[in-house]
Amino acid sequence: MPEDFPNYVDVDYTDGEGEDPENYASMEHKIEKAIEVTKQGLEQYENPAVMWTGGKDSTLTLYFIKEVAEKYDLPTPTAVFIDHYQHFDEIHDFVAHWADEWDLDVVYARNEDVGEYVEENDLTPGDDIPIDALSEHNQHHVRDILEYEEDTFPFLLDTYVGNHLLKTVALNDAIESQDIDGIISGVRWDEQEARADETFFSPRHDPEIYPPHDRVQPILHFDERAVWDTFWHFVVPDTVEDYPDEGYVPEADDDLPNDLTQDDIPVSPKYFAGFRSLGSEVSTEKSDEEPAWLQDLEDTTERAGRAQDKEDLMERLRDLGYM
Fold it and tell me: pLDDT digits over 188-215, tens only?
């Protein structure tokens, strides 16, 4: 990161305090705020990057970035994709396809020390990894930061050690190696209780925990329904040739207008298949048989398909740098 960070940044770290999605009642208000935060993020930071998981929230965030960058003649930032070795194959395909379609520079952040051990020992998710087989860097995180005392940990994403090493350490290493000062992410207030008190510009300045940087969160005030409404009435019509300008909400992947196919739409096929949240292929299940946007979003939990061990630890994980 630049040496004088954060002295050159002029943002309001309290913006959004005490608010929730109801403070932004109309779709116009939500979009206006998202554009405002995105514009500040692209202008204030010398080397911003966008977190892109291939999921709906980060793809919506990327849409706002593309729109703002084009309108105000600003550079489109690098996209950082955390490859935790347990993605659905469809996610990798989706990211590769739309990175090419949208001419994006994508950096793949990986904890290669863990990945190489897994490959060399032909491990599968759930197999144990000895702590003393890790690099000093990873052992420091496990022993000194997590204060984990066991001799091994399971090669699983949605656990305390696994999530930290495979996602947070990979992200922090990428922030450092790429000199990133602002991470633009698709975090939302309503998605998880530990994120409910976040602000639109969130400082991460403690060098003992992570490379100092800020989190920029343009869709913090969206709820799940608003995300999907924005996709079908703005994102898809704006980015897909031949899609109706007034929007159209499909009921299945074979219900798209004008002979378009699912491959033409910047929406992960896992959402068409009934998943509402995308985690790892070994610990995330579909919520229903219907596409995500047709499910009961108001009366059911979005992340119910995720492994609950990690969900229960979310506040602690976020303190350590998790998104």
Answer: 998 877 778 899 999 999 998 899 999 9
How far apart CA 175 and CA 163 sit, in angstroms, is 17
Residue given tokens 């994102």 in the structure block:
235
Indicate the burial class of 22 (C-beta count within 10 angstroms; 0-12, 13-18, 19 or more): exposed
Residue 93: its H or E element? helix 89-101
Residues 6+ apart with CB under 8 A from 221: 16, 19, 20, 21, 23, 24, 30, 33, 34, 188, 189
Nearest Cα to Cα of residue 237 among 258, 221, 216, 223: 258
Strand locations in 45-145, DSSP E? Answer: 48-51, 78-82, 106-109, 128-130
Taking the alpha carbons at both ends of the chain, their separation in whole angstroms is 19
Q: Of 311, 231, 321, which Cα lies nearest the Cα of 30? A: 231
Tokens of 186: 């698709």
pLDDT (mean) for 25-52: 97
The position carrying tokens 């032909």 is: 122
The position carrying tokens 């985690």 is 279
Q: Which residue has the tokens 């990945």?
A: 115
